[in-house]
Amino acid sequence: MERPYQQCAITVMDTIADDDIRFDEKGVCNYYYDFRKAEAEQVFTGQQGHDKLESLVAEIKEAGKNKPYDCIMGLSGGVDSTYVAYQAKKLGLRPLAVHFDNGWNSELAVKNIENIVSRLQLDLHTLVVDWEEFKDIQLSYMKASVVDIEVVSDHGIFTTLYKLAKKYKIKYILSGNNVATEYIMPRSWLFNKMDHVNLRAIHKRFGTVPFKTYPVYDTALKKYCHDILQIRTVTMLNYVPYNKKAVKELIAKELGWRDYGGKHYESIFTKFYQAYILPTKFHIDKRKAHLSTLIGSGQMTKEEALKELAQPLYTPEALKLDYEYVLKKLGLSVEEFEAIMKLPPKKHTDYPIERGVFDRYPVLRPLKPLARMIRKV
């Protein structure tokens, strides 16, 4: 039987967003409590946050002595990465900024990145991936009918960060991930961004253009970066006050940053994916998760969130423009695209996924504690 509709008493998460959502006797959902727990464990404010960040910055500077950079970070031109860059320079760090150009940057994103790099005097490494190759991987994911098409971009940027960290012997990756503005996210909306087995399997099944320039985070690179270099990801925005509205005003004033009008809308494809493909095909409105997180961190009321949700994801005019642009750039006819949209959704796990050696060979599981000890040594 279909589950009766219910919305959280505090956030705007509901049974449409996640059919597996749970509510207590007060009507409060599990996502709100999960957020509260993460906030208590991962967010550090006041003097405690200052001291922890100061100690962390000292570690990064020490590890980066006599090296051209002491840390590395992705720079998309969005709010989170822009604020990370601003904080890093303010704290005296020497980050290498990395941008993954997948062919979908908006003109505004390009201008924002130029302003950020220029005003903060950052070194920028831009990887321009072959368009035909990247397009083929994106189309493979669309034809596979899986939910997380953004794996293609995210896997590329993360792999590039690790490869450059390896090249320059950088031990710290600065991440824009944070609890205050983006913690809530149903697992069913995403997949493991670093699963190279799933990525290759989907591309092998539906793709035609071989990998040449696209960076893949394979097992060898993973083992070297994690076990040998012991590269660490730092979520520094959890150590500083992070009010999204205030931060937007700050970076606009200090860096000439301009707003895109939506989370991750610096990419034309990401905007189309989040505002059209996800809600149309998968019945997912990511605003529910983003706004619920802002409610949890006290940056928005539920009434304000509901008012925002009542606004259309696209105006008819903007949708027409983006629809035509995306299809033309992907080389799809309207009939081909609509046929893809009508395919029944599939799970990423319907295709091969990455598994550890002990999962692949159960007979070796008794050796798992020994392997951990050797890795630690």
Q: Could you give me the name of the CATH homologous superfamily of the largest domain?
A: HUPs
Q: Please state the CA-atom Rg, rounded to the nearest Å.
A: 21 Å
Read across the widest sheet, the strand sequence of neighbours is: 3-2-1-4-5
Mean pLDDT over the full residue set: 93
Secondary-structure-based class equals: alpha/beta
Quick one: biggest sheet? 5 strands, parallel
Helix content: 40-55%
Regions with pLDDT < 50 over 5+ consecutive residues?
none
Number of separate strands: 5
Structure description:
The protein is an alpha/beta fold. It has 2 domains: 55 residues, no CATH class; 275 residues, HUPs (Rossmann fold). It contains 17 helices and 5 strands. Strands 3-2-1-4-5 form a 5-stranded parallel beta sheet, with helices on both faces. Helix 11 packs across helix 14. The radius of gyration is 21 Å and the shape is globular. The termini are far apart.
